[in-house]
From TrEMBL:
Biased composition, class Basic and acidic residues, residue ranges: 11-20
UniProt keyword Cell cycle present: no
Region feature Disordered, mapped onto this chain: 1-20
A Pfam family the protein falls into: TetR_C_21
Domain HTH tetR-type: 22-82
Matches recorded under PROSITE patterns: HTH_TETR_2
Biological process, per Gene Ontology: regulation of DNA-templated transcription
Regions of compositional bias (Basic residues) in chain numbering: 1-10
Keywords, in A-Z order: DNA-binding
Name of the protein described by the UniProt record: TetR family transcriptional regulator
GO molecular function, one term: DNA binding
Upper classification of the organism: Bacteria, Bacillati, Actinomycetota, Actinomycetes, Streptosporangiales
Residue ranges: DNA binding: 45-64
Length: 217
């Protein structure tokens, strides 16, 4: 046997196998997000996901236990990424823009949420991860107590409003064109919209306490 043949048949090192597995998982997650955001869960095909990732479709079962497991893994990956920029110490207006920039940079998540809203049972989805929404709402209630949200506003309504405003340029590009006269993907619109959202969030804050005049002597 030649030296070339021995090199060709050399078993990969453990670190090489680990890197290859991580790469395959990453490729599958990205490909699945592409497919699910374009076609929804029901419309996405395992073979199309594998073809887009450039790997054997059997790896979907091997790494994720099937199509549904891959779908759930996308949600877990989003939570990991969200934790990187969802800082409770950041003012609400800045947090809003962080979410907006993320949605504009990668619109697939917003598109996938539209598919979920149109095709999945709302009660079942809410029961899947109630702690996630409870934690977000708790943070909004804390911000209200700090004065970042006015006393007469419901933190849940403010949170839903923020989620909708973040997704709007992605899921309503025709409305953006009609209302603003520019493309939702243009830097001109995105910078203007981000600044407007900052100002809107500021207006939702509790008004500063008026300074009482000292009593007359």
């Amino acid at each position: 046997m030649s030296e070339t043949t021995r090199r060709r048949r050399r078993a990969p090192e453990p670190t090489e196998r680990k890197l290859d597995a991580e790469r395959s998982r990453r490729l599958l997650l990205d490909a699945a997000l592409d497919e699910f955001s374009a076609k929804g869960f029901a419309g996405a095909r395992v073979q199309d996901i594998a073809d887009r990732a450039g790997v054997n479709k059997q790896l979907i079962n091997y790494y994720f236990g099937g199509k549904e497991g891959l779908y759930l893994a996308i949600g877990r990956r989003w939570l990991e990424r969200e934790a990187e920029f969802n800082d409770p110490s950041v003012p609400l207006e800045d947090l809003m823009v962080r979410y907006l920039r993320h949605a504009l940079d990668d619109p697939r998540g917003s598109r996938l949420n539209v598919w979920r809203g149109l095709t999945e049972d709302a009660d079942q989805v809410a029961d899947e991860a109630p702690e996630e929404f409870a934690e977000d709402l708790s943070d909004m209630e804390r911000r209200k107590a700090e004065g970042q949200i006015a006393d007469d506003l419901d933190p849940a309504a403010v949170m839903l409003l923020m989620m909708s405003a973040v997704a709007a340029p992605v899921v309503m590009p025709l409305a953006v064109r009609r209302v603003f006269g520019v493309s939702a993907t243009s830097p001109e619109f995105q910078d203007h919209y981000a600044e407007q959202l900052r100002r809107i969030i500021r207006h939702l804050a509790a008004p500063p306490q008026e300074t009482q005049a000292p009593p007359a002597s």
